[in-house]
C-alpha cells in the first residue's frame, strides 16, 4: 500500500485500533476514525497524535470516501458506517489483515500469544530489543502491544528495523472473518505462555481454543522456533505436531530453559536460568510474581535465539517497568495502596493475588472484583473463581457487567460465589454499585492494607473515586469513622 492514503478506522477507540491508527500515521498515511463515543485512554492518545475522531457513527463520517476502511472487530452489521461501506462497495479490510500487509510482510514476525501473560511478555520482548539496539545495530524493534508499555509510554512503535514484535490475540478478527487475529501474523518465532479456556462468547469449549492454537503453531516454518511454557498441559497438546524446534521454559528440570533459585523480596525478584541443565543467566527485575519471572524467561529465551546478546537481555529486564493496568499502583493514600490489574480470568486473578502476597508480605489484601470480561460474566469458571478470590483477606464483588447480555443459564451468579467464600470463613460482600463499594472500603481500610481492583474496564471510575474517598475520610472524619465501623482510624504511616 502506497503512503499518503486516507484510511478510516471504524471503532477507533479500541486499544488495538487506536494503536494501529498511530502505526499507520507513522508510516505516512492520513488517518481518520469514528466511534460511538470517544473515551480515554485511547481518545487521549489519538488527540495527542492529531487524529480526529468523529462521533457517533454516521454515513457522513465516510464522506469524502476514504481509500480504505478498517472495520474493528467490535463492529457488527447494522452499524451506519459499515452499512454505507457495503452499500457503496468501498474498499474495506480488518485490523489484523492490515497489520500483515503493512507491517509484517518482508519482516521478522515475532509473535507472543497465550491465554495469560502475553501483553506483559510482549512488552518485555520489545524492551529487550530496544535496549539491545542502543549497543548493537539491527535490533531496533517495531511493535504492537495490547497495552501501554511503561518503558515506552506507548503501545506501538514503527521503525525501519527487521523485527516486528506483536501480541498475538486469539479473539476473532472482524464481522466477516471470525478466525483469530493471530492467524494473520505468520510467526517466524513464537512464544506460547499458556493455553486455557477463555473468551466464552466466541469459543464453545476448551477444544475449540486448542484448535485455534494448533492452527497458529502450524503457521510457524521449519526454520522458526517456538518457546512454550512447560506447566500448561493443554499447550503441550497444541505443539505436538510442530515442524520447528519447540523449547520449553518453566520450572521443570527437563525443560530447555529452567527457572531456579527464585527469590522475591518485596517487589523485586531474582532468579537463575539453566539452559539444558547448565548455568546460563541470572536475572533481576522490579516486578512481583513468579509468573512474571516465567514471562521474562520466555522473552529472554526467544531473544537470545534471535541473536540478542545476553548482556542486553539482563540490562533490559533489570530496567523493565511493566505495563499499565498490570499490578499498577494507582494511588497510596495514608498507608493504603490501591492496585489496578486487568484481571479477566480466574487464573489471572490467582496469579495477581499471589504476586501481591509476595510484594506486600503481611499486608491485609482486598480483592475488589468487577466480573466484566466475557469469560468472568459466565458461570463456566465459578468454582475456580472462588478458589482464586479466597487468596485475599477481604473480598468485594460488584454486579456482573451488562448481565442482561449473557443468557441467564450461562450467567455468573455472584451470590453463589459470595456464599462459597463465606463458607470458607472469608469476609466477602456483594455490593452492586461502585458508590457502595467505595463507601465500605473507605470506612474499613486501615494503614498497611493493599486493595487490588480487578477489572478489564473502567469500573465506573473507582480508580479515582476510592483514593478521593480515603483522603476525604482522613481529612474530615477519622475519629467518627473509628467509632462507627470499629476499624483503626486512618493515620499517616510512621517511618
Automatic annotation (TrEMBL):
Coiled-coil portions: none
Segments of this protein annotated with the region Disordered: 473-495
Keyword presence, Transmembrane helix: yes
InterPro entries attached to this UniProt entry: Mpl (IPR005757), Mur-like_cat_sf (IPR036565), Mur_ligase_C (IPR004101), Mur_ligase_C_dom_sf (IPR036615), Mur_ligase_cen (IPR013221), Mur_ligase_N (IPR000713), MurCDEF_pg_biosynth (IPR050061)
Entry keywords, A to Z: ATP-binding, Cell cycle, Cell division, Cell shape, Cell wall biogenesis/degradation, Ligase, Membrane, Nucleotide-binding, Peptidoglycan synthesis, Transmembrane, Transmembrane helix
Membrane keyword on record: yes
GO molecular function: acid-amino acid ligase activity; ATP binding
Every Mur ligase C-terminal domain range: 325-457
Residue ranges occupied by any Mur ligase central domain in the UniProt entry: 112-303
Annotated ranges, domain Mur ligase N-terminal catalytic: 6-100
Sequence intervals crossing the membrane: 6-24
Gene3D superfamilies hit by this protein: Mur ligase, C-terminal domain (3.90.190.20), Mur-like, catalytic domain (3.40.1190.10), NAD(P)-binding Rossmann-like Domain (3.40.50.720)
Pfam families per the UniProt record, alphabetical: Mur_ligase (PF01225), Mur_ligase_C (PF02875), Mur_ligase_M (PF08245)
Any one Gene Ontology BP term: regulation of cell shape
Name assigned to this protein: UDP-N-acetylmuramate:L-alanyl-gamma-D-glutamyl-meso-diaminopimelate ligase
Organism (species): Acidobacterium capsulatum (strain ATCC 51196 / DSM 11244 / BCRC 80197 / JCM 7670 / NBRC 15755 / NCIMB 13165 / 161)
